[in-house]
Amino acid sequence: MESAQGMTRRDFVAGVGALGVAGVVGTGGASSSRAVGGGRFAAHFAPHFGMFRHLAGDDPVAQLEFAAGEGFTGWEDNGMAGRSVEEQERLASAMSRLNLRMGVFVLNPSTAWGPSFSRNDAGDREKFLAECRAGVEVAKRVNATWATVVLGTREPRLDLGYQTAYAVDQLRRACEMLEPHGVVMVLEPLNPRDHPNMLLAEMGHAYEICRAVDSPSCKILCDMYHQQITEGNLIPNINRCWEEIAYFQIGDNPGRKEPTTGEINYANVFRHIKDKGFDGVLGMEHGLSREGEEGERALIAAYRSCDPGA
């Protein structure tokens, strides 16, 4: 999965560990004064750090303040688990003050890219469960409910049925740890064009796994950019998987930029999701079609045009 700036998720998560605490706690000064506003969005769209850096500056808290001033009510940060405890607490305090709902962070960056779920290996399993234990503490600090899990790659010497069963067993073990804390891991299918040989690519396979795990702590992350590439047919597939979907992510295709820049009719998709009663977070995991302040303003305008309450 690519990050919002076009790098792969693997590169993005690796880089977050090197981030330090940026700047000082925002005070609602320059960042919020540049917010144009327009009322709160009807949907809980969730930007991420860096998305408004030209308009809000580099301090993460200033970016949160700017987003809240523009009417956003959610936020997500793939790399939250790689930030220091002090920074996590600083950001959580700001999000609470600004009434921003925390979306996903990546639960398993070290087991997401190899055959960690597909070969029934005890070492892989224990490494993943250690990530889950650490993830529970992150979730507590930042008031998070959802955490992304990527099920790694396929094992070419094993039938897919065995690999699926091994993944189900491993996820059931994780749910025993997550359920008491109300943490929900959301499984993300990744498209095979950008991420070949991943164990999980199709919504139907994700649905099969979640039904087999049978836990409120194991659900689907429907990234509509990935699913448009893999399968298309977005609304019918969303309907079929509805009871197992806990989280959505956004990106138009081609290009993985903001809505209205590609082929997906996001106004219709968002309206459909709202009409079905979804009140969760929709993560804005994409890049910008234009650079600088102009591009950031264009992104906000695109979401205004697609907001199901507009």
Entry summary:
This protein is α/β, with parallel strands linked by helices and 310 residues long.
Describe this structure in words.
The protein has 310 residues and is an alpha/beta fold. It has one domain (9-16, 38-306): TIM Barrel, CATH 3.20.20. Helices cover 42% and strands 10% of the residues. The chain has twelve helices and nine strands. Mean pLDDT is 91; it is low at 1-9 and 11-30.
Secondary-structure map:
Blueprint: H1 9-16, H2 30-33, E1 44-46, H3 53-56, H4 60-69, E2 74-75, H5 85-98, E3 101-102, E4 105-106, H6 122-142, E5 146-149, H7 160-178, E6 184-187, H8 203-213, E7 218-223, H9 224-230, H10 234-241, E8 245-249, H11 266-275, E9 281-283, H12 292-306
Parallel strand pairs: 1-9, 2-3, 4-5, 5-6, 6-7, 7-8, 8-9
Helix pairs in contact: 4-5, 6-7, 7-8
Structural class: alpha/beta
Mean of residue pLDDT values = 91
What radius of gyration results from the CA coordinates?
Answer: 18 Å
**Share of β-strand residues:** 5-15%
The string of secondary-structure elements, in order, is HHEHHEHEEHEHEHEHHEHEH
Any key phrases for this structure?
two-stranded parallel ribbon, 7-stranded parallel beta sheet, 42% helix, 310 residues, globular, TIM Barrel, alpha/beta
